[in-house]
Design goal:
Neuraminidase; single chain; mainly beta; about 10% helix; six-stranded mixed β-sheet
Amino acid sequence: MKARRWLVLLLALPLVLPLPPAAQQAGPGLPPAPGAPKPQPAPQVPPGEKQITGVITEAGFTPLAIALPPAKTDAATSAQGIEILTVVNADLSFSGYFKIVDPALYAGMTVDESRVDYVAWQAMNAEYFLISTVYAASGQLTLEGRLYDVKRKEMVTGKRIKGPMQDARILGHNLSAVILDYLFGAGSFPTSQILFTSHLGDTQDIFLCDYDGKNIVRLTAMGMLNVTPDVNPTGDRMVFTSILKDRQELFLLDRQGRRVRLYGQGEGLNSNPRFAHDGQSVIFCSSRSGNPDVWRVGLDGKNPSRLTFSWAIDTAPCYSPNDQQIAFTSDRSGSPQIYLMDRDGANVKRISPEGSGRCDQPAWSPRGDKIAYATSVQGRFQIAVFDIGTGQVTLLTHGEGNNECPSWSPDGRYLAFSSNRTGSYQLYIMRWDGTGVTKITNQPECYSPCWFRG
């Protein structure tokens, strides 16, 4: 499995410190390992029978009941076993695909892989249950997870996952991904990550965390304001805005800690950069022409091209998944609203409804069917979603402080956003329909989440 973590980067210093290595997954199935219980082979699905699939958007979808009995551990791995199951529980609960069976129903029950009591699990109305084993060998932590289908009375998928002893959370997220991917093809979010900005005294810097807000790492320390981060499709390069006095410049940062000025030295004020999905260019707002417009530039920073030519302020651009259209904010109608245009700037049209309050920060869903944005409702910003197929706009947040800066998860099923509903701006995540709202940060003033695959 490819590395899923950025390096710890202090840009003002030459020092580059690597994060702990990413968890390593074995190949399909669970090959025997020294000191581990002998795994059961994964059964073949009979012809004509398919694994359960579904999406939250389907009418009448009922979450699957899954039991998560305690992991089998020894004294050396007891804490890690508890942490892993806590992570899996949180991942599956937030997904919206599962309801967790009350642990009190199987308290004290012996979970034996060699003699599975399907009748007992069925009596609890469990549709699936997970048997997990955690052990340490050669300085590494090993997690074995096996998912059982109660109705079919068999193990349906499993995985052995290894990593450093301190990476119990990463192993747990990877096991959640295995379960979600097998049943729903939705295994990307548990191992995803989020870039965001947070205040540190007089500066503002860019941080990285897991999708649930854990494992926070500071990525910049340049003694200035660093804001509006975005990451390229392969997850190995970041673009962001640096602000110092009267300068706003765009910088690129890669995993090795190399920082390069992309654009902006003596070329007006530049902000809100966003990668194209082919990774070959960046669109952004620049005032180099004397007016804030949308521009595009290659990764070499040369030959920028202007895309909008209105007298208005045009800003916050983002590409459609196929890079053929751009959503952006413009006040050409008198107040900031959301517009679409072709990639070359042609065919501009407004999509935020007439009568809308101030609208800003459009974010195009990876599925290409929706655009989320912030809109002013009764004096507060709320997260709205525009359905491209129907033209319908749906509010996902309602009256709890200001809710801004939406960012889609890599699979388009969830949204991250910034909200001051508790007094200070923090990051939250929620499902595509506005349910499952969960606060994930607790540090000074967090903004501009950028959710990516990791």
